[in-house]
Amino acid sequence: MRGKGLFLALGTISFALAQEVEPVEAKTEVHQARALEELVKVIEEADEILYAGEFTWSRERLFSREFLKSWTKEELDLYAEGSPGKVFTDWMFPMGEQSAFYDHRNQVEFFKNFDAELKKIQEEAGRGLESNSAENIARFYWKSAEATLAGWSRRDPRAAWKAVRHPDGEFHGQSILNDYGYLAPRSIFENLVKIDPELVWREFTGETDVLFRESMLIGIGHGLPVRSDWRGVFEQVLESGNPPAPEYRWVLRGLMMGRWLEADASAAEEWFRSEEGKAISLQERTLFVEPGLFHFLTGGRFSEGLLYKTPASLAPAVVYWMERDLDGGLAWLKNRPETINDLFFGGGLRLSELLGPKDWRKILKNCLSKEKREEFLEALISADDIFSPDRTRDFFGYQTERALSDAIDELEVNDELGDRIFSKLR
Fold first, then answer.
1. What is the pTM of this model?
2. Residue 116, domain extent
3. Across 388-417, average pLDDT
4. Which of 8, 38, 276, 424 could form a disulfide with 34 if both were Cys (CB 3.0 to 4.6 A apart)?
5. Domain assignment present for 241
């Protein structure tokens, strides 16, 4: 019942909240509330779209957010109170976010009253093994708080940030921020940078916690318009701490560079390979050697390894670009054989994180010859075992046998390999 109570708190919203600032996002026009039966039906129809669309987590979140923007106060209340069988579905957090967009106050009050009990849960989670039940519960409540902050910041990001980071803020000092609080700036800064970039950079420059800085940068990267002065953005980040901390250097190489590539690929690539760009484009590697060889090479005693630097790939950046503009990023990638090789054969990139299986099949088909596609897929299905992630799913997802067969046919591989993929995934 605890979760049910939280969902009702998330669903209890009001249009009466006085607006002291212009919202980042306008409220939708009020329409007559639909009946519960109709709301359940439209959610089921939306679920069918999600399941059939091979959505990634980020795209599912965007879809859910856009879908719920048309829901009124009464409809969210009605669904929360009248559809208990749907309470713990994937729609709980998007509905909580939309509720907070209208009025965050009930949700803030819930976490204030729940603080002592949540603290006990967090203490229990800290004493147990990883992913114990208490930790899962604590993570559940953080996701609820994150939904609150995301919705609130879509209306008033300055107030949402104050609630988290300032001594007189509603969330400041609360247990909900203990374990996952460093993630709070992601959604807040995505909206804050749209209305007050000066405040964003001032807060980023003054922040000493590298995990908070990482989250701030992720929010900034998602929130800035594509036609921003990206060279200036990178200079701003580097001037605030050069070299950038390893904790957020990956954000610069991936998300931020991907946004710049989308806006001006030639300028972004030129800067990335320039002397200035080496602050993020060189990555440290460790070479492990036998002690005797180490002494021969260095004249010194054995060390755990030799550190050296090597140029980083633009593969992660182009994946972020393709998340927003698949065809644009793919057109650039097709003429970069080295980056293609890094993407498919370099390892270390979590393929399914940003793009869906349908997208990856299109990239595979357009970037690799039939021979190379077969070589890649052969290595992929041979490497998968019970002790490693099933990376083949990144390209085919979870589909009906007919849909799986069609997906394999898209790649035009030989029949024997196609049959093996089908047998493995059906």
1. 0.84
2. 1-148
3. 87
4. 38
5. no
